[in-house]
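Entry 12.
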Amino acid sequence: MKIDSACILEDRGILFVEGQDAKDFLQNIITNDIEKVTENNSCFASLLSPQGKFLFDFIIIKHKKGYLIDCEKAQIDELYKKLSLYKLGSKLKILNLSNEFVVVALSYEKFISMNDSQDKLGFTFKFREDPILLDPRNKKLGARLIINLEKFYLSLKKLNIKPLNQEEYYKLSYELGIVQKNTNKLVDKIFGIECNFEELNGIDFHKGCYVGQENTARIKLRNKLTKRLFPIRVIEGKVKEGDIIFNENLEIGKVLISENYPFAIIKFTSEKFDFNSTLNIKEAKIKVIKPSWL
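Predicted 3D structure (tokens):
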């Protein structure tokens, strides 16, 4: 992204969790430590099934007396239902603010050039009362501003930046190996830790229990992580969801997201995997993209 550009991420939705039990409520269910989330720091986290399988991922930002949850909009209604299910007798409110707030992506360079910013993953401060943060997953994703829709264009003018098509941002995310679109295709199909959430600062192995913690910890501690979610590049043909990936005659993975920015779950060991090899699918040939953080 260019320093003078910004993308409105129309595919993102916002929930707001507030109330005296909000902090403990989130701490008991998410993979990261809510204690990390302050006025000056935001975190990436996920909500897993009791078996440790992927359900949702999101960024959590402290705002006023509660927490903003920035999640893919296609999953926002299901996340709202799941949080409401876990709520039980907790003293808190969950609001869907997706029609009132927008998520705006800014370049890393723009964020660093702003007064009060710090070059620290997740660092958060207020820009005209709205939270702006350096992405807690990878600084190459830049920053994001959570802002009321009515104030958006005035703020763009104040920041001296111009709107850019959001696909530029999602292409960058794909090339970095960070899935943000069509995440509903991953639900209950792979473990959260296989989504690279440890490398993307989304799992805290030192906090207390959370939903799916037992299997997540077991995979980590027993060194059982043998598969990872990777972006794939189509060299020839067309891929479909569920396509089996072969290296010669050996099955090594499956396509989970096929449209726009494809991702696959790949059997992976760092010592043996050849990212230069061309792999076969029934109607296509692909290569696995090696993320810079690996």
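Annotation: The domain at 5-175 is CATH 3.30.1360.120 (Gyrase A; domain 2). The CA atoms of residues 43 and 275 lie 30 Å apart.
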